């Protein structure tokens, strides 16, 4: 099926970009690899027909959080000598740490039968419907969302204070 092929392609892209985030030495290139990783995760969610999660992945993570991270990276001193090399000396250990669990997980998935998804109740909202998501979000997770927003504002103020202190 075409969706299975697309999920495999976007999954491979997500793994490659995640590895690049770990091994890239320059912070801006690592941030761009992280943006590509998050976009490929959104594509996987879209292929799984979880469109609300894919939309939030793009809007919140790629759009908002990564803009903040790129802004913070731009405030770094680019004349630092440690940024002159493309890859870190920790690249090989990082690749080993990533590859070993992925291979172990792949071996486990080959042995196990796939789990069946629970069916949606007839007449009720679907398992991944917008109404089910919004009800759960507004009743259970609104506080967590607000705390994350406050933490992002605190991070912006802290970065601003650090930069103001340097001047």
Summarize the structure in words.
With 167 residues, this protein is mostly helical. It has five helices and no strands. The chain is flat, with a radius of gyration of 20 Å. The mean pLDDT is 77.
Order of helices and strands: HHHHH
Question: Strand fraction band?
Answer: under 5%
State the share of residues found in helices, binned by percent: over 70%
As a whole number of angstroms, the C-alpha radius of gyration is 20 Å
Unreliable residue stretches:
none
Main beta-sheet annotation: none
Global structural class: mainly alpha
Tally of helical segments: 5
Quaternary: single chain
| Mean pLDDT over the residues | 77
Separation of the first and last Cα atoms: 58 Å
- Let me know the number of strands: 0
**Overall morphology:** flat
